[in-house]
Fold each of these.
Amino acid sequence: MILADATPQWPADWTAVGTVALAAVTVAAIITTIVITVQDRKRADKQLAGERAAADKRLADEIRAADERLRQERQGYQDQEQWAEAYLVQVTRARRSYYPPTNQPPPDEPVDHAVAIVVNHGRYTITRVEARLYASGNVTSYKTTEHLSSWFNLPEPLRPQGIWEAEGAPSNNLTPMDLGLRYTSDVLAKRLLTGNYPIVRWTDRWGQQWEHKQGVVRKMTEGEEWHA
């Protein structure tokens, strides 16, 4: 009779169980690592996206700030040029003697015409030139306006006999080459002309309106009333 081997089998069994358990732990560890890696990657991607968004915002802010500085610098240069051009518009007060017609008696008291002469010494054309006369507490219009064009600045060889300035309606624009504008009032008693002065307005090349009064130039807005 042969007796069955009574050697215990548990070591082999437990080895198999341990192997399975170890495999399970390894798989779990791998899965956990993968999950952690994915989460870390998402966090890193989110952080990177945030950093990129912040960098883009900083860049956009810097570009806007640079554009604003450039705009302000250009505006500053333009303002300086506008003021310089405005003060290159010369306004001169003058008088013109009155000579009564030979068939009329002389006036009861001395009279004269008030005259304003406007010359553009700037580099650009000025437009919509207007003038008013302040005299004896009132602001009134001049009676006549004469536009002396660039014709009068031509050298004599370009103005030979038989050539003359083209006629036309007086212009209220002044180019740098024009001689100027001359405004003449109606006949006024000389006593009323004491302290009189012209008020001249125009528009520059940038569309800004200006007013010259007693040697002082200022910016003005459309539609302002004329004041002494």
Amino acid sequence: MHTLAEMAEKLNRPVVHLRGLQRSFKLPAFKGAGYSDAYLAFLETVVALRTLNIPEKTLVRLWRIERKLMRLLNVDSASSPTWFLDSCGPTRNHKRRLLNRKNNGS
């Protein structure tokens, strides 16, 4: 589990930037070390795609579509507030995901 400050350091971004991403993508915010590896992997992907000059607006639209698809497939049966991230972090079929990638440290 990670804190927001730890994730900001790993992503080489200020905490205020991560808070902006949380708002844009409607991600839950936690106090202390409440952020999972899947949450960090998602933010890594977003930061990498933004570095490649993909507009945040486009990424947010793709994320909304992905969440709708996961709801239609009943993936949201978990009681976690981050079910949409936790259920896709360790997936074997990471290439079939719109915004998540395999969490292998790459």
Amino acid sequence: MEKISKPNLVDLLRLSDRQRWFSPRIRFASVRSKPELIGDLRRLYTDVKRGGLVHFVPRLALPAHVPKIAYSPKLRTFLLNGKPIDVPKISRARPVFSIRYAKYTLCF
């Protein structure tokens, strides 16, 4: 995990926070050091190097909606479920919302 740059780690944690992959949340503030971020990730994952990729193997059973995560040092990109994904672009995208002027019923 040390070969992954801090901005890439922060983008991965930002995406995981947006998708609610981990509970409790992992803080990803820019004031935290890279070793602290890696330490938080190592509580959930072990990093295994296979076939030129760094695979994040879960230590415990994670929810089904959490994808398999790998990192390609050669391409400098993350692979989610085996597919390359532009994590910085997705994690920094503005949230989509709309305002509707209609009646809604909330059930508790």
Amino acid sequence: MGQRLASLDSRVSPEVLSSELKGPCGVLTGCTAQTGSLVEIRRLYERYRKHAQATGHHLSRADFHMVLRNSPVEGLADAYAGFERSGLVNMLEFIAALVLFAASSWENKVLFLVELFDFDGNRSLSRDELTILCTAVLNGFGSLTTSPHLRPGQLAGLSEEVFSEADSTPDGLITYAE
């Protein structure tokens, strides 16, 4: 994946996915209680979804702390600082970053992300859903590391390439099996 990102932008190192975590964000991944299981992350996501009906996927500091209340990541001020841009946190990026570092197999992480970004509930991902997934995962990872966030055009190109490779039955949708 690092090679693909580097081919999109010369500023991105091919070793981007092996980058060191930024100091303030290290606490998110420093112990299994923080990285948590996918079950804990699912609970956090469900709390966010209930709250998001009123606020959308960008949360203010107060809303962010309300969603995280009584969760394994409650009280981590540096979590907000690491993900805050323009006064808001993109919760999809935050959740995706937690999934990347969750104590789980890659297969379970992929299944979790497919379910998370399957917004229409049809058990598959459209091009748009895959683009949102790629954006959230890569920007979430970039928030935890020194990696730059990719521009929308770069992300669209990457997600199109991933979609073309993954859609083995050219039906315009990617299933978990694909």
